[in-house]
Write a structure and sequence with these properties.
Largest sheet: 9 strands, mixed
Shape: globular
Number of helices: 8
Strand order of the largest sheet: 2-1-3-4-11-10-9-6-7
CATH superfamily: Class I glutamine amidotransferase (GATase) domain
Helix content: 25-40%
Order of helices and strands: EHEEHEHEEHEEEEEHHHH
Structural class: alpha/beta
Number of strands: 11
CATH topology: Rossmann fold
Radius of gyration: 16 Å
Distance between the termini: 12 Å
Length: 236
């Protein structure tokens, strides 16, 4: 059983949930946004997924501290973990990294991500060498925890994805559907109104959206399947 933590209703598992259904992998959704508590036990759990949200990992919330503790507990037993945006920042902070306001301001919209040279990157990304489009929505960034290996970067923020063993932390969003992107652009207008070099408008974000999502899924599928390979071995 995979356990997924949702922090706000509009930021669900998206394409990941479709992939799990396709591969017949069961998951349990912990709805933090509805007041559910963070389960402390890892019994019967093969992996953890931490989704995004508009909050900061540095906020003073009990559930944040509970999730950080759970991440450290799972890391000690080498349990596969996956994080998107806020989720990646939770993993970074729990394992010794620092999450802070980004020097380049908000990175919002469709921006390229770039593979980082190295054996670990090649293991996770295969022959992928060219820049590919990904969706972004963040104003904070993470440092690399001890022993983490960087595998993806962007022009605005060099730290876009890292791995530690079977754990994959993605600052960018590869899990979004077209409906999720539209909803965020309509809900998070305060973010969009701030402007900035790497902050696209709602019209830019939604332009040619279906094709952008199709392209994104070509990136997301092999990367998420690589993570799920580690999960499958845990289940055996």
């Amino acid at each position: 059983m995979l356990r997924i933590f949702r922090h706000i209703e509009c930021e669900g598992p998206g394409f990941l949930a479709e992939l799990l259904a396709e591969k017949q992998i069961d998951f349990d959704l912990v709805e933090i946004d509805k007041g559910q508590s963070v389960p402390n036990s890892l019994d019967g759990i093969s992996g953890l997924v931490f989704l995004g949200g508009p909050m900061s990992v540095n906020d003073n919330s009990a559930w944040i501290e509970d999730e950080l503790a759970l991440i450290r507990k799972a890391h000690k037993v080498d349990m596969p973990m996956l994080g998107f945006c806020l989720g990646s920042q939770l993993i970074s902070k729990a394992l010794g990294g620092v999450v802070s306001r980004g020097d380049m301001g908000q990175e919002i919209g469709w921006h390229n991500i770039y593979p980082v040279d190295g054996e670990v990157s090649e293991h996770w990304l295969g022959s992928w060498k060219e820049p590919l489009l990904a969706f972004h929505w963040h104003g904070e960034t993470f440092s690399l925890p001890p022993k983490a290996q960087l595998i993806l970067s962007s022009q605005a923020y060099s730290h876009q994805a890292f791995v530690i063993g079977k754990t994959l932390a993605l600052q960018c969003h590869v899990e979004v559907s077209a409906d999720m992107v539209k909803e965020w652009a309509s809900l998070y207008t305060d973010d969009l109104n701030q402007g900035g070099q790497w902050n696209q408008t709602a019209n830019e974000i939604n332009s040619n959206l279906e094709n952008k999502v199709v392209t994104l899924r070509k990136t997301a599928r092999p990367l998420l399947e690589k993570w799920l390979d580690g999960l499958s071995r845990e289940q055996e």
